[in-house]
Amino acid sequence: MKLSNLIHTKPKFNNHLPHSVCYVFMCYVMCILKFSMNLYIFICRVPWIDTIVVVVAKESHSMMADILRKYNHTKVKIVEGGSTRHRSILNGLLAFSEQGIGSKLQRPKVVIIHDAVRPFLEEDLLLKITVAAKEHGASGAVRPLVSTIVAATTEGYLDHTLERARYRASEMPQGFIYDVIYQAYQKCSEADFEFGTECLDLALRHCGVRARLIEGPPTLWKVR
C-alpha cells in the first residue's frame, strides 16, 4: 500500500489507515458519464486505495472496458450490476470471493462503497470514512435533513411527523470492514435485496455493527 504522498499531505491519518482499501464504484447510469468520469479519475489517483471495482450495467460493460484500456488503469476491475441496488453491491463484493465470476481479487481490510451519481468528493472525507470504518466496523457520511419527514396513513392522511433535529440524511460514501459487509449480505433476505437501500442498516441488523456517522459537506448531492 502506497503511503508516501499520504504521509506528506495527511500525516495525522497515516498510522490509522488499514493495510488494504478497496473502492466499490457504483456506476448505475452511463448518461452521467461526464460527471462520473471525473470522480472515477479522482479515485484512481488516490494513492492509498489499492483496488477499484466498477459496477456497471451489462449494456455498459464494453464502454467501461474501452475506458480502462484507453487510460491503462490496472487496479480497476469491472463487475456487472444486478437488478437492484443491494444485488449490485453484492456483485461488487463478490469480486473478492470464491463465489465471484472471473479472477478473484485480493481481499481488502476495508471497502468503501460510493455512487457515481455523487460526483463531488473530497479525499479528506474518504480518509475519515476509511479510518472510522477500520475502528468501528462501519461508517457513513450524513447530512442534516432540509425538510421535515412525515408518515402517511394508507388512506393518504398525515399519521405523524419526525423530529427533524434527531435525524440525518444518509449519504455516500460508506465504509466497512470487508468481512462485516460481506457477512451482512450473506444473511440478507429476499426482501432486503428487493426493497432495501441502506448498507449501514444491513451491518447493524445482520452483524450487530453500529456505524460511526461522519458529517459530510454540502457537495454530497445526487446528479438526477
UniProtKB/TrEMBL annotation:
Q: Which UniProt keywords apply?
A: Membrane, Nucleotidyltransferase, Transferase, Transmembrane, Transmembrane helix
> Per its UniProt record, what InterPro entries does this chain match?
IspD/TarI, ISPD_synthase_CS, Nucleotide-diphossugar_trans
Q: Give the signal peptide, or none.
A: none
Q: Does the keyword Membrane apply?
A: yes
TM ranges = 21-43
Single GO molecular function = nucleotidyltransferase activity
Q: Name one Pfam family in it.
A: IspD
Keyword Transferase in annotation:
yes
The record's similarity note reads: Belongs to the IspD/TarI cytidylyltransferase family. IspD subfamily.
Q: State the protein's name.
A: D-ribitol-5-phosphate cytidylyltransferase
